[in-house]
Automatic annotation (TrEMBL):
Keywords, alphabetical: Signal
Family label: Belongs to the peptidase C69 family. Secernin subfamily.
InterPro entries: Peptidase_C69 (IPR005322)
GO-annotated biological processes: proteolysis
Signal peptide: 1-18
Record PANTHER family: LD30995P, SECERNIN
Organism taxonomic ancestry: Eukaryota, Haptista, Haptophyta, Prymnesiophyceae, Isochrysidales
Alphabetized GO MF terms: cysteine-type exopeptidase activity; dipeptidase activity
Full protein name: Dipeptidase
Length: 688
C-alpha cells in the first residue's frame, strides 16, 4: 500500500530545466528517515499532475513499452502503464483542447516483469509502495543524443535519434520494479547502456541526475549519453553513482557533483557504482589514464559546467550547505565550477534534519545575505527568512531589485531567440541570479522512507503543487481551477507580489501552522498503523473508508485547499489598495467599527482600522520621490509674483487646524479670491 501526504509549503515545462534536489541519510535526520526532495522548476506548459500508478500482475510474454515524454503537459498516463484500468486520468489529457500524440517509441520495449509496484509520479517517478524515493535534476553533459524515431538538427547537422530511454522512463522502471536504491541504479544503468539514453537537450540539459533513496540508503546517480556511433542501431550511456554516508546529505542543482570514483568499489557493498564506459571513454580521449595514479573526477570529465550563467548551480549548493552546515563556511564565490571543486560532494549537518527543514531549504531566497534577490535594503538576519519591514532596518545600504515591496521573484527577460544572448526586449543582456525558492516551480515534493514502520505508512510523499515558497493538489497550466491546490497556491504566489515583504509574513505563519497540523496528523496515522499492524490487521485500504487512517490524508488535502483559498481572500482584504486592514479573525474580514468626529478625524481612543503604511522612505528617495511635483504657491509667493496683495497676506497661525477654525481665522484660495478675519465684503475688497 502506498501512503501519500500533501505538503502545504504555501507558496511548497516545458522542461524541468532547473530543479533543485536534496537527499539525507538516515543518521542525519531527526527520526531516522531517509529523505529526498525535488522542485520541478520548469517554465511554460509543464505537467504538475501527481499520478498514482496501480500495482499490476502481468501475463507471461508481456512487453513493457517505452513512451516518449515531451516534457510538456500532458504526459502519457494511460492504461498501458498498468493492468488495472486508469481511465480517470485520461480526461485530464485534453484540458484546454490540447492533446499530445502518445505513441510508443519504435523498437523500444523490454520484457515485462510478472509484478510491478504501485507508485506515484509527477513528471518523474517519485515514491513507490516499497518506500523507494526519487528526485530529479537536469544537468549539462559533454555528449548529447536524440530520442529514437526523431531526427534533430543541431549546428546545421542532422542528429539521428537512436536512444530509447529518457530520465522520466528510467525513473518509472525504478519505481515499478525495485525496493532498494542500489538495485534500481544497476537496472536502469544497464537498460540505458543497452538501448541508449537521451536528455532534454542535445548538450545543455543533455545529462541528468537522480537522488535515489530507500529505507536504508541514499544515492546520487549521474547519467549522460555516450558518444554518437555511426552504423549502430542503438546508442548507449555513461553513468556513475555514489552512496551518501548515513550521517550526511547531498544536493544536486543542475550540475554533476560526483568527483573521484573508487574503481575498486564492491558493487554489492561499496559506495560506488558505474558503467565501464566511464573509464573507456576517458581513456580514449586521454582525459584520464590508469598510469597517472589519480582517480577519475566524474564531474570534471563529463560535466559541461554550469548552464545559463555562472553561479546558476554553485550558488544553490552554497545555499544548501550554508543552511544545513554553516560551520563549514563554504565559499559563496569561486572561479569556476568544474575544476576548482568549490564544494564537497556530501556534508554532515550541524543539526539533525527534519521534513520541515527540507521544506525551508526549498524556499530559500538567501534573504539576509549579500545574494538576496530582494535587494540589500530588505536583508535582515533571520534564519527563517522572516523579519521586519525594511523601514525598521536602520543602517543598511539599500538596493532595490525587489522593487518597493522587496519581492525576490524576478521574471526573466524576453526569450526571443533573435535577441542577443540573455537580452530582454530592450536588448539589455544580463541575468538574475538563480535562487532555490522560485516563482516558476510547478510542484515540489519530499519523499520520506522510514524503516521502523510498515511500508503501508512508513513511506510518505509530501507533495506541494506550485512554488515551495507559496505552497501549502493537482492542476494544470491550461485552465484556472479553484478545486485544485495548484491554482490556490499559484493564486496566492502571484498576489503576494503586490506587497511581498508584508504579505509573506502572513504566508509564513500559514505555512508553519499547516506544517504543525500535518506533523500531528502524521503522528496519529503512524500510531493507528502500528496498532493495526501489531494486531495482524491490514492498516490501510485502497477503498479508504471514513475510519481508514489513509482517508485522513485525503480529507486533509481537501481542507488545505479550502484554507489556501481562504488565505488568498484574507490577503486581498488585509492589503487592499495599498492599505492595511487589521482583522479580528485569522482569515476573516470582520473589523471593529471606526468612530469619526465632526471634523472628519478619528475620535481619540477609537480603533484605527485602516492604516496606510505606504512605501519605504529610503526607496522613495532612491526613485526620486522628493523631486516630484512641488506644493502649490502660497499667498506670499503669489503676492510677490503679481506685485499686489494676494489673500491679504493672511497666513494661518501656528497650531492645529481645528483650533484655527474655532478662532474663525481662515484662508481659502480659489483662483485669486480669498477671505480672512473680517466680513466677506472687506475680504473681497482687500483681495482685488
Amino acid at each position: 500500500m502506498l501512503t501519500a501526504k500533501l505538503l502545504p509549503l504555501l507558496a511548497l515545462a516545458g522542461r524541468a530545466a532547473a530543479c533543485t534536489t536534496v537527499a539525507v541519510g538516515k543518521a542525519a535526520t531527526v527520526d531516522g528517515s531517509v529523505m529526498c526532495s525535488h522542485t520541478n522548476d520548469g517554465e511554460g506548459m509543464s505537467d504538475p499532475r501527481m499520478i498514482r500508478i496501480p500495482a499490476s500482475e502481468w501475463p507471461t510474454g508481456t512487453m513493457r513499452k517505452v513512451f516518449f515524454n515531451p516534457e510538456d503537459y500532458p504526459r502519457y498516463v494511460g492504461t498501458d502503464r498498468a493492468t488495472t484500468a486508469v481511465p480517470e486520468y485520461l480526461p485530464q489529457n485534453q484540458i484546454g483542447g490540447y492533446m499530445a500524440p502518445f505513441e510508443p517509441m519504435p523498437g523500444c520495449e523490454i520484457p515485462q516483469v510478472p509484478h510491478t509496484y504501485q507508485y506515484y509520479e509527477d513528471a518523474y517517478g517519485a515514491h513507490n509502495e516499497k518506500q523507494l524515493g526519487i528526485a530529479e535534476s537536469t544537468c549539462s553533459g559533454i555528449f548529447g543524443a536524440a530520442p529514437r524515431g526523431q531526427n534533430v538538427t543541431a549546428d546545421g547537422k542532422i542528429v539521428v535519434g537512436k536512444a530509447c530511454w529518457s530520465i522520466d522512463s528510467l525513473s518509472q522502471i525504478a519505481m515499478e520494479r525495485h525496493s532498494r536504491a542500489r538495485d534500481a541504479i544497476r537496472d536502469i544503468g544497464r537498460l540505458a547502456e543497452q538501448t541508449g539514453f537521451y536528455g532534454a537537450g542535445l548538450f545543455e540539459g543533455g545529462a541528468e541526475s537522480l537522488l535515489i533513496t530507500d529505507v536504508d540508503e541514499a544515492w546520487i546517480f549521474h547519467i549522460l549519453p555516450s558518444e554518437p556511433a555511426d552504423g549502430e542501431e542503438y546508442s548507449s550511456a555513461i553513468w556513475a553513482a555514489q552512496r551518501i554516508p548515513d550521517d550526511s546529505y547531498a544536493a544536486v542543482t543542475n550540475a554533476f557533483i560526483i568527483r573521484d570514483i573508487d574503481r575498486d568499489s564492491d558493487p554489492d557493498t561499496g559506495d560506488f557504482l558505474f558503467s565501464e564506459s566511464v573509464f573507456t571513454t576517458a581513456r580514449r580521449h586521454r582525459w584520464w589514464s590508469e598510469e597517472s595514479g589519480e582517480p577519475l573526477d566524474f564531474t570534471a570529465t563529463f560535466s559541461d559546467g554550469e548552464y545559463a550563467n555562472k553561479y546558476y548551480s554553485g550558488r544553490r549548493l552554497w545555499g544548501v550547505f550554508n543552511y544545513f552546515s554553516p560551520s563549514l563556511n563554504v565559499p559563496a564565490e569561486y572561479l569556476e565550477y568544474r575544476y576548482s571543486k568549490p564544494y564537497p560532494v556530501t556534508a554532515k549537518p550541524d543539526a539533525l534534519i527534519s521534513v520541515a527543514d527540507i521544506a525551508a531549504v526549498n524556499r530559500l531566497y538567501y534573504i539576509g545575505t549579500n545574494y538576496s534577490q530582494a535587494g540589500s535594503g530588505y536583508n535582515a538576519e533571520m534564519p527563517d527568512e522572516g523579519g521586519a519591514p525594511p523601514s525598521l532596518r536602520a543602517g543598511v545600504e539599500l538596493g532595490y531589485p525587489g522593487g518597493p515591496w522587496g519581492s525576490p521573484d524576478h521574471v526573466a527577460g524576453n526569450n526571443n531567440t533573435a535577441m542577443p544572448s540573455g537580452a530582454n526586449q530592450y536588448g539589455i543582456a544580463g541575468n538574475w541570479e538563480r535562487t532555490i525558492g522560485l516563482y516558476r516551480t510547478s510542484e515540489s515534493y519530499i519523499s520520506q522512507s522510514r524503516k521502523n514502520l510498515p511500508d503501508e505508512c512508513g513511506g510518505v510523499l509530501w507533495y506541494g503543487p506550485y512554488s515551495a515558497t507559496y505552497t501549502v493538489t493537482n492542476g494544470t497550466h491550461m485552465q484556472l481551477d479553484k478545486d485544485t491546490m495548484f491554482w490556490a497556491n499559484r493564486y496566492v504566489g502571484n498576489y503576494v507580489q503586490l506587497k511581498w515583504w508584508a504579505m509573506i509574513e502572513d504566508v509564513r505563519a500559514f505555512q508553519n501552522e499547516q506544517m504543525q497540523h500535518h506533523l500531528a496528523l502524521q503522528a496519529r496515522v503512524d500510531t493507528a498503523c502500528q496498532a493495526a499492524h501489531a494486531g495482524g490487521r491490514r492498516p490501510l485500504f485502497s477503498s479508504m473508508p471514513s475510519d481508514d487512517p489513509l482517508h485522513a490524508y485525503y480529507t486533509n488535502a481537501e481542507r488545505v485547499t479550502r484554507e489556501t483559498w481562504n488565505l488568498a481572500d484574507h490577503l486581498m482584504f488585509k492589503y487592499a489598495d495599498g492599505q492595511l486592514h487589521p482583522t479580528d479573525t485569522r482569515f476573516g474580514t470582520l473589523t471593529p467599527p471606526r468612530a469619526y468626529g465632526s471634523f472628519g478625524d478619528t475620535v481619540p481612543g477609537s480603533v484605527s482600522v485602516i492604516d496606510k503604511p505606504g512605501y519605504d522612505g529610503a526607496w522613495l528617495e532612491t526613485v526620486g520621490f522628493p523631486e516630484g511635483p512641488p506644493p502649490p504657491p502660497n499667498c506670499t509667493e503669489l503676492a510677490q509674483r503679481y506685485n499686489r496683495p494676494i489673500c491679504g497676506h493672511v497666513a494661518p497661525p501656528n497650531g492645529p487646524f481645528r483650533e484655527w477654525l474655532q478662532l474663525k481665522e481662515f484662508a481659502v484660495v480659489t483662483g485669486l479670491a480669498c477671505a480672512y478675519k473680517g466680513d466677506a465684503a472687506a475680504a473681497t475688497n482687500n483681495c482685488h
